[in-house]
Specification:
By secondary structure, this protein is of the alpha+beta class. The chain contains three helices and four strands.
């Protein structure tokens, strides 16, 4: 399995997470449509927030990153958030 962490901070990040929270059902549906989807977590932090997506393989992780980018551009561009810091890697332990 592969995971990707997208961290949003700075100008517009809190506003972005306000939009994500209000449209959480839509975001969930979008991520569930990713081929090889395993799990998704969206977390608010003091200066914005982060998301973690787990997929069966790198192709799924790549698809999730692109879908998230496209969704934000279409639905939350007004928030003015900078592109996230993206960290990817192989899952060592996944507990359900």
């Amino acid at each position: 399995m592969q995971a990707v962490l997208r961290t949003y901070s700075g100008k517009g990040a809190k506003e972005l997470f306000d939009v994500l929270e209000k449209r959480a059902a839509e975001v969930e549906e979008l991520l569930r449509s990713v081929k090889g989807f395993v799990g998704y977590t969206l977390t608010r932090s003091d200066d914005g927030g982060f998301s973690v997506t787990v997929c069966n393989d790198k192709a799924g992780v790549d698809e999730s990153v692109q879908k998230a980018k496209d969704w934000i551009a279409k639905n939350a561009a007004d928030a003015g958030a900078a592109a996230p810091k993206v960290t990817e890697g192989s899952v060592i332990v996944h507990v359900k």
